[in-house]
Design goal:
The structure holds two protein chains of two kinds. By secondary structure, chain A is mostly beta strands. Chain A contains no helices and eleven strands. In chain A, strands 2, 4, 5, 6, 9, 10 and 11 form a seven-stranded mixed β-sheet that branches. A four-stranded antiparallel β-sheet of chain A has the order 1-3-8-7, with no helix packed on it. Helix content of chain B is 0%, strand content 43%. In chain B, the strands form two sheets. In chain B, strands 1, 3, 4, 7, 8 and 9 form a six-stranded mixed β-sheet that branches. Classes of the chains: A mainly beta, B mainly beta.
Chain lengths: 118, 111
């Protein structure tokens, strides 16, 4: 079955960087792009960005431009999201998501809680 | 503030139907047939319930249906069951600069 398994929870200080991984299994990794979606505590969902697992082309939400990098390692079917210059309002659960439907997310990772605290 | 507008809450009794609206603009909901709906239980990852406005992924009960009129999309849950009590989020494609935008979510309570 399809699985997206993410790395564990992180605690970072303001101004630091975090890199979250997402290992896919159960399907051909390069068939579908990977997006990242975050959810602040008690809040709604927010699309962070997307990467083509086939070409490496990225598309980031405007508010994260300049401090976000998404990459993939096709040899291990793993996607990575690095967010820099972290602020307290970046505290959230980050999900990697994918799936066959355009602009819809059928596969979800378990989520990675990133806590920004001094 | 979310790009798409949903009511914060909705409710219905078992067996009834409830409809949740998701209002956007001609740049998102009204401009594309890429509206999705997600169900989320507390502490869990969301689950895709509807994609491309009306389509259901395999395994989603046909009690869940989607529609769209103009800039407003809707999710209807028929024959409400206790297990339908959850948060529901809509999303829409919004062009090349913002692939996907979400609604703020609606908490559905089964009375």
């Amino acid at each position: 079955q399809v699985q997206l398994v993410q790395s564990g929870a992180e605690v970072k200080k303001p101004g630091a960087s975090v890199k979250v991984s997402c290992k896919a299994s159960g399907y051909t990794f390069t068939n579908y792009g990977i997006s990242w979606v975050r959810q602040a505590p008690g809040q709604g969902l927010e699309w962070v960005g997307w990467i083509s697992t086939y070409t490496g082309v990225t598309n980031y939400a405007q508010k994260f431009q300049g401090r976000l990098t998404m990459t993939t390692d096709t040899s291990t079917s793993t996607a990575f999201m690095e967010l820099r210059s972290l602020r307290s309002d970046d505290t959230a659960v980050f999900y990697c998501v994918s799936g066959p439907w355009v602009h819809s997310f059928d596969y979800w990772g378990q989520g990675t809680l990133v806590t920004i605290s001094s | 503030q979310s790009a798409l507008t949903q009511p914060p809450s909705a409710s219905g009794s078992p067996g009834q139907s409830v409809t949740i609206a998701c209002t956007g603009t001609s740049s998102d909901v009204g401009g594309y047939n890429y509206v999705s709906w997600y169900q989320q239980y507390p502490g869990r990852a969301p689950k895709l319930m509807i994609y491309e406005v009306t389509k259901r992924p395999s395994g989603v009960p046909d009690r869940f249906s989607g529609s769209k009129s103009g800039n407003t999309a809707s999710l209807t849950v028929s024959g409400l069951q206790a297990e339908d009590e959850a948060d529901y989020f809509c999303s829409s494609h919004a062009g090349s600069n913002n692939f996907v935008v979400f609604g703020g979510g609606t908490r559905l309570t089964v009375l």
